[in-house]
Structure formats: structure tokens, C-alpha cells
């Protein structure tokens, strides 16, 4: 039996050899650039690098300084607020739109294109559009006041207490269409017999979605959650286009903090420390997802 299995192992190694050779450049890119760059960033976050990187280690000094900086604390608070609300509203609105589209409505392709179109725009364009829409002089506030409601006030980008919600509105407008498409793909993968059985048993539609369909779509929800969460950690373009971090530092986010310290303040050590904390946040998201998706599948 062993004599028959041993010769087969080299054949497994050389199977699809051309595709494996073709994937070598991408694998080298991933290992050398992404993994190497990550290690390089983490190592230099423990140094006193300023304008240029240098191996002058200072231990955890950069991290202590980072967490003692009010601007970093504000950026973390903004990211937490924006992230939680973005996850909740993106998943909720996206699923509701997908459920509506799944009812085989007329002009489904047209509506799907309309909802997905904002995702095709860059964050800079989206930010500039919503900066205009939310401008109190000629945006929503101006239009409503011109209709006679002179006491109406809606200027989130100019109010430090609610500016992060103005950024959230633009993000939801752009990203909800993608969530809708992912959810719709998951709904279209549900066996039609399940819907028929639920109707025969007299189960209300909302209970069918809540107790049958949503649990069956767990992989779709997990994947969508990871996509949204990774985008939340990296948010930068919208903030720069809409507010540039203002008023003051009221709408600052970690990615902008990193950029400013590395390219304007010329403090590479501090920028590396902040980017390492962002990397840690992404790892906290990716590692549990990989374990749930691949570890659980392997055990099964």
C-alpha cells in the first residue's frame, strides 16, 4: 500500500506547476513588501526616528507619548463612534435594501445600479460632494430655510460636537450599496424550498428572515463585517475632503494622525507607533475572522 502512495507525492507537488510558477512574483511581493514593510514599521516604532529612520531605540517611549497626546485620544474616540455606528447602520440598511430587492421588484437592475453607483466614486469625490450638501450657506440648511423654515439648523461639519456624524452620513451613502449587493448575493443563495416551507407553516416573513434566513447567511455577514471594519480603521479620504480634521481636531482620525506626523511633523517614530496601533486594530479584526472561517471549517 505504501509503495503505491509514495510515488504519488511528487506528482502532487508538480501539479499545476505553471500556475504555481506564475504566482511566485505575487507571493514575493506579499512577503517582501507587505510583511517586510510591516516588520520594518513595528521595529522603527521603538526608535527615536525624526526626519529619517534611524535605529536609536527608546523602548516604549513613542507609545507612551502617543497615548498621552490629546489629539490621538480624540482620533480614537472619533474612530470608535464612527466605527460602531457605521457597522450598525451599514449592515441594517444594506440588509433591508437587499431584502427589498429580493422580492423580485420591477426595475430591479436599475435600482441596484443606483444604490451601487456611489461605491464607484472615490472617497475624495464623495467627501467634496457631501461637503457642499452639508454646507449651511448653500446646502440642505439653505434650501430648507428658503422654503420658510428659517429656524432650521443643519451644519454638522461646522459643529465640533456632531462633526463625526456628518462624515458618517457620507460614508453610509457611499458604502451601503456594496453591503446591499453582498447581502443580496447571500439571499439569492438561499434554497427556494425554505421559503415555500415557511409559507406553508404560516411563519410571518419577518420571523423567517430573523430566525431562519439570517442564521443561514452567517458567512456573508462575517465577510461583510470584516470588509466594513477594515475600511473603518483606514478611513482618511473622507475626513480630509470634508473637514481636514476640523473644526480644530474635532474630526481627526488615526490615519490622518499617522500621515501628519510622518510627512508634516517629521516625526517618523511617532507615526510608526500610531500606524502599529492601527495594525493591531486590523489584526484584532482579521484574526478572529480567519479562525471562524478556516479553523471552524477545518474542524468540521
Automatic annotation (TrEMBL):
Q: Where in the cell is it found?
A: Cell membrane
**Entry's InterPro entries?**
ABC_transporter_permease (IPR051393), MetI-like (IPR000515), MetI-like_sf (IPR035906)
Name the GO terms of the biological process aspect.
transmembrane transport
* Gene3D superfamilies assigned: MetI-like (1.10.3720.10)
Residues of the ABC transmembrane type-1 domain: 76-291
Q: Where does this chain mainly localize?
A: membrane
The family line of this record is:
Belongs to the binding-protein-dependent transport system permease family.
Q: Mind telling me what this protein is named?
A: Sugar ABC transporter permease
Q: Which organism is it from?
A: Neorhizobium galegae
Amino acid at each position: 500500500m505504501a509503495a503505491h502512495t509514495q510515488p504519488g507525492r511528487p506528482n502532487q507537488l508538480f501539479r499545476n506547476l505553471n500556475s504555481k510558477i506564475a504566482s511566485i512574483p505575487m507571493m514575493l511581493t506579499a512577503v517582501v513588501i507587505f510583511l517586510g514593510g510591516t516588520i520594518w514599521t513595528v521595529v522603527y516604532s521603538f526608535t527615536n526616528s525624526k526626519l529619517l529612520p534611524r535605529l536609536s531605540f527608546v523602548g516604549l517611549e513613542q507609545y507612551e507619548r502617543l497615548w498621552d497626546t490629546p489629539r490621538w485620544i480624540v482620533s480614537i474616540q472619533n474612530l470608535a463612534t464612527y466605527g460602531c455606528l457605521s457597522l450598525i447602520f451599514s449592515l441594517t440598511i444594506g440588509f433591508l435594501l437587499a431584502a427589498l430587492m429580493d422580492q423580485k421588484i420591477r426595475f430591479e437592475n436599475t435600482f441596484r445600479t443606483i444604490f451601487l453607483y456611489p461605491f464607484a466614486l472615490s472617497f475624495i469625490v464623495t467627501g467634496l460632494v457631501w461637503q457642499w450638501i452639508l454646507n449651511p450657506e448653500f446646502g440642505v440648511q439653505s434650501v430648507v430655510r428658503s422654503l420658510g423654515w428659517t429656524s432650521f439648523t443643519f451644519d454638522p461639519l461646522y459643529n465640533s460636537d456632531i462633526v463625526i456624524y456628518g462624515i458618517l452620513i457620507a460614508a453610509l451613502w457611499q458604502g451601503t450599496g456594496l453591503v446591499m449587493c453582498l447581502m443580496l448575493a447571500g439571499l439569492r443563495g438561499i434554497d427556494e424550498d425554505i421559503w415555500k416551507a415557511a409559507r406553508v407553516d404560516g411563519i410571518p416573513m419577518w420571523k423567517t428572515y430573523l430566525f431562519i434566513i439570517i442564521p443561514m447567511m452567517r458567512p456573508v455577514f462575517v465577510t461583510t463585517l470584516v470588509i466594513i471594519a477594515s475600511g473603518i480603521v483606514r478611513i482618511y479620504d473622507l475626513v480630509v475632503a470634508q473637514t481636514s480634521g476640523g473644526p480644530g481636531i474635532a474630526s481627526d482620525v488615526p490615519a490622518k494622525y499617522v500621515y501628519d506626523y510622518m510627512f508634516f511633523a517629521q516625526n517618523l517614530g511617532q507615526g510608526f507607533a500610531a500606524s502599529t496601533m492601527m495594525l493591531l486594530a486590523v489584526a484584532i479584526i482579521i484574526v478572529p475572522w480567519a479562525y471562524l472561517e478556516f479553523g471552524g471549517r477545518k474542524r468540521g
